[in-house]
Write a structure and sequence with these properties.
Elements lengths: L1 H6 L7 H8 L7 H16 L4 E6 L3 E6 L16 E2 L15 E7 L6 E4 L4 E4 L3 E3 L3 H18 L6 E3 L10 E10 L2 E10 L5 E10 L3 H17 L5 H7 L10 H16 L2 H17 L4 H16 L4 H21 L4 H13 L3 H15 L3 H14 L5 H12 L6 H12 L3 H10 L4 H13 L3 H14 L5 H8 L3 H14 L12
Parallel strand pairs: 6-8, 6-9, 7-9
Antiparallel strand pairs: 1-2, 3-4, 4-5, 9-10, 10-11
């Protein structure tokens, strides 16, 4: 392919022509083309005398610059040159990205090249409609796009709530919903200059919106992240761009249910359960809705006023998890919920393996790594692995969220790093389990006075909380952390409930 492009340097060559030239009379997919383009660009990155450019909607153009032969080294250590490396932004964004020389760091005194990982801020999509349903769906589209990019370890993705000052690019979009038709636009801009780098639009009937959104997310991921070549990114992207459901009403109810739960008031969480139950009734094969319902039922379980109510909610959650496992058994979020189900049945080895499987499937997704470290270490002993997952998530995320401290605290607690657990949990958001774990870790450090102050705040802010209800609902391994949490909290003065030690 390189020879074909070189013979036609400066010309725009379409995809079909390239595929016919390289694979005549052979039926191959565009993924093979993308792989070749990726290999050529990677080779050119070692010989900065040319670029393989993408011409939007037309094809590719090889541009050879400079007078030296391919392989000639650059002469100036301060020189910068645009490189078309698809694993950075792919396609038309390449002209705005560059490699930079740094000082002499090799033993022989030669220069080394380091890549400054590009960052893109995914801004909320504008919605040109007065419909509440479409407004809600449009608001979620930036999350869909960011999620599609989250598995790429070579790209920093700034979500809608993250600070964007380190992002070199911004992705803006618009959703138009009129007269039964849908139009989606996406624009990639340089953040500092506002210069347009790439844009694309998608149209279709309203009934096909979810498939259209999935195609949009896939196209954006291909344009910004390039065709993945490393196993970790391919694993994380597997199945990520398929529509979760084909039922638009179920999807809207799912979004309402997730949004309602964020408020965390009793009324809002009750609404969340109602919305998500209706979503699963409309589409019983909507795995994400079943998983979201499991999380909502978990929140309700912690607020149960009796053992009977807690048990009924736990049973309902177990049924939701079982349905999600049947529908999406290898999804990282499903595996993490399945770990709870295993722990509920005291199958702790299986729970541990489910969490490890989730991490393997998550690849470079920092949110899933964090969730695995937090939820996994609540129930089973993952050793130092959980700490490593959080550290990896911090490296991958341009703006780590406060819950990363939560996850680190749980992981260090289970690893018996009491001082590290306290330090992390002190940074974490206020939450009953944060105070419980922090107090017990402080007690293990011999700081009973500090532990009692922490539990006093817990009891003041959450007067109905009891350690035994927490252990009961979360299916904590009694031999690992459960008995310790209950007995230490009671010794320090936290009132006990009437929940059984073992379910």
């Amino acid at each position: 392919m390189y020879r074909y492009l070189l013979a036609r340097q400066g010309q725009v060559i379409g995809k079909a022509e390239l595929m016919d030239a390289v694979w005549p009379n052979i039926n191959v997919t565009e993924n093979s083309l993308y792989q070749c383009i990726s290999d050529i660009r990677r080779a050119l990155s070692d010989h900065p005398v040319g670029q393989l450019q993408t011409v939007p909607r037309q094809g590719y153009r090889l541009v050879i610059s400079g007078s030296g032969p391919v392989g000639a080294a650059p002469r100036s250590r301060d020189r910068r040159w645009a490189m078309a490396l698809p694993t950075l932004f792919g396609a038309a964004a390449v002209a705005a990205l560059s490699w930079h020389h740094v000082g002499d760091t090799t033993p022989a005194g030669g220069n080394v090249l380091t890549m400054q990982t590009p960052g893109v801020a995914i801004l909320p999509f504008a919605v040109t409609t007065d419909s509440d349903r479409w407004t809600l769906i449009g608001e979620n589209m930036s999350t869909v796009v960011a999620r599609g990019l989250s598995g790429n370890s070579r790209l920093r993705v700034f979500g809608r709530d993250a600070p964007r000052d380190q992002a070199a690019f911004e992705l803006k979009g618009r959703l138009n919903a009129t007269s039964g038709a849908i139009g989606i636009e996406a624009h990639l801009l340089e953040r500092d200059t506002g210069r347009s780098v790439w844009s694309q639009s998608w149209q279709g009937p309203e009934g096909e919106f979810l498939a259209l959104q999935a195609r949009m997310a896939q196209d954006v991921a291909a344009e910004l992240g390039g065709p993945a070549t490393d196993a970790e990114t391919l694993q994380a992207q597997s199945g990520q761009h398929r529509p979760a459901t084909e039922n638009l009403e179920a999807y809207a109810l799912y979004l309402r249910g997730v949004r309602a739960r964020r408020d965390m008031t009793p009324e809002a969480v009750a609404y969340s359960r109602d919305y998500l139950t209706r979503a699963t009734a409309l589409d019983p094969d909507f795995a994400e809705a079943w998983l979201a319902l499991s999380v909502t039922l978990n929140v309700l379980s912690h607020r149960a006023s009796s053992r009977q109510e807690a048990t009924a909610l736990i049973d309902a959650r177990a049924a939701a998890v079982e349905r999600a496992v049947a529908l999406a058994p290898d999804a990282p979020a499903t595996l993490i919920e399945q770990a709870w189900l295993y722990a509920l049945n005291r199958e702790f080895n299986a729970a541990r393996e489910a969490v490890r499987h989730a991490v393997a499937r998550a690849g470079a997704d920092p949110e899933m790594l964090t969730l695995a470290a937090m939820a996994g270490n609540i129930r089973v002993d993952l050793g130092e692995a959980g700490v490593g997952w959080v550290e990896k998530a911090r490296r991958l995320s341009p703006a780590p969220r406060p819950r990363y401290d939560f996850a680190e605290g749980h992981a260090r607690f289970t690893a018996r790093d009491w001082a590290g657990a306290v330090a992390a949990l002190e940074r974490a958001p206020a939450h009953p389990s944060r105070f419980l774990y922090q107090a017990v870790a402080e007690a293990k450090l011999g700081k009973d006075a500090a532990a009692r102050q922490t539990l006093a705040r817990l009891h003041q802010d959450y007067p109905e909380f009891s350690a035994d209800l927490y252990v009961y609902v979360e299916a904590v391994d009694m031999e690992l952390n459960g008995r310790m949490l209950i007995e230490e909290a009671a010794r320090l003065g936290l009132p006990r409930g009437d929940y059984p030690i073992i379910r």
